[in-house]
Amino acid sequence: MNEPQKSTNILKMDAQGLARAAAALQRGELVAFPTETVYGLGADATNDAAVASIFEAKGRPSFNPLIVHVPDIEAAWEHVQMTDMAYTLAETFWPGPLTMVLRRRPDCRLSLLVSAGLDTVAIRLPDHDDARQLMRLAKCPLAAPSANASGRLSPTSARHVHQTLAGRIHMILDGGDCPVGVESTVIDLSTGAPVLLRPGGLPVEDIEAVLGGTPLPRAMADETAPKSPGMMLSHYAPRLPVRLNADGPGIGEAYLAFGPGNDYPSLSQSGDLVEAAANLFRLLHRLDDPDRYSGIAVAPVPHEGLGLAINDRLERAAKDS
Ligand code: TXA
Ligand code: MG
Q1: Which residues form ligand 1's pocket by a CB distance below 6 Å?
Q2: I need a labelling partner for 24 at 20 to 30 A (CA). Which of 32, 69, 254, 310 fits?
Q3: Torsion angle defined by CA atoms of residues 38, 43, 48 and 54, in that order, rounded to the nearest 10 degrees
């Protein structure tokens, strides 16, 4: 994790604060903002570099998929594939503390990094007028994990956010205390039968009642038990074998470079790890083409800062091949 170096402004969440925050988000900056559950660390969810900087600011050792927040129900269906059950739950519980994991639409504009390389997105419509107004002004969906440094408690006030992220993010919008105080309930609707991934602000019983009274199977998957994202990450490993710490491609292999100096696609020509994270999933997807290549050779990536998360993901990809 880099040393703190930004001066973090705390602004009141009034018209002026919202306007400045929206402009900052459009520039790709990070802005912490309140929702009804906890404060989120927001970035333009369509901007790879902005999403990558979330992981950098939180100091996350690996790429967990992030929740994408939208300002209204219709906006959700621009990004994910609607199902009957998703429609019913959205109409019943949104806006509110329910997050649904659904498949990405083929034309989905969201950064692949919010999905951590999966073909699903966790999406939610917060019950917080100013948070929704922020998204309307910024004209983008917001990727937002809880606004705390990795491993620390989720923040329910601007002061909590400041305690662990001061110096690492551009701005904190102070909208007072979060009324719910625990994170949203996360359910996975991407695989047919719904599964509870994380209990949260919306009681599970309320969801079960709407789904006809049958109990929801549980697969705990919060940051403290990263089993579910881990399983899913390996599930979506590249089709081609992946070879790490390669100085160049072998015969038939694609090459994914890091740094300058050749005609191969590079995670970052300038050796910048945030840029490399922003490019990682897009380039892996592009090179994972069995019609053209026999494997993917990847240059060494420095094991510092976001390099830890990049190497974690690459090692998973290589292990499964
Ligand atoms: O209340 C909340 O949900 C807060 C506020 C800011 O909205 N956000 C939040 O985000 O708690 P985060 O990143 O701390 O938690 C996201 C949870 C994690 O457990 C993650 O593994 C899961 O959602 N998740 C996100 N995308 C997923 C996906 N595509 N598939 C499965 N699980 C996903
Ligand atoms: Mg969290």
Answers
A1: 35, 37-38, 40, 64-67, 99, 101, 115, 118, 120-122, 144-146, 183-184, 186, 188, 197-198, 221-222, 229
A2: 310
A3: -50
